[in-house]
Amino acid sequence: MERRDFLAAGIALPGAMRTVLHSPEASDSSKHAPTVRRAPAADEQFEELVRLVEQLMREHEIPGASFGVIKDGQLQMRALGITSVEDPRPVTTDTIFELASLSKTVTATAVMALVEQGKLDLDAPVRRYLPTFRVQDEAVSASVTLRHLLSHSAGWEARYAVEEGEGALGRWVETTEDLVQLSPPG
Questions:
Q1: How far is the C-alpha of 56 from the C-alpha of 83, rounded, in Å?
Q2: For the chain, what is the radius of gyration of the CA atoms?
Q3: Percentage of the chain with pLDDT > 90?
Q4: Same domain, 69 and 158
Q5: Which residues contact 84 (CB under 8 A, 6 or more apart)?
Q6: Last residue of a domain, one of 47, 63, 96
Q7: Where is average pLDDT lowest: 63-67, 131-135, 158-162?
Q8: SS3 state at 145
Q9: How far is the C-alpha of 63 from the C-alpha of 83, rounded, in Å?
Q10: Does 30 qualify as catalytic in the annotation?
Q11: pLDDT tens-digit profile of 73-100?
């Protein structure tokens, strides 16, 4: 998946979640998922944001960044600088950056928004939403909750041992059935 497709997919997530959660609106989820088109040219507000990012990159000695904004269904993207001082290739809109623990905050925020909307239950088993979810211990596979996942108290040590690139997330999900339970959930 290219970076621009990933950003556009993030906008479509609420519509996809409606379908997964079988909410009343899900009967015609296509009318709820916004159409995102790549913008032919950036507007002045976006250019102002670019200048701000460039300034902050200089102030904080950040070698490179890439970002996108969706406004009125139009995707605007910009790549700035180099990948790293050790590997000074130009950043492109398809450059993959390691987000490390930042993804935890983004995921938790999205989940809590769905909890507030009544579409997710933190104390429901993960299998309510992902029926094929499994780890090595079948009892844990059936009982571990979203709250356990968000609070990192599911009881197993997560590991990421798959080759990066297209389909990496899907390949990693397939490895969760090998996760060994180190302690009970909670």
A1: 16
A2: 19
A3: 42
A4: no
A5: 63, 64
A6: 96
A7: 158-162
A8: strand
A9: 7
A10: no
A11: 889 999 999 998 998 999 998 888 877 7
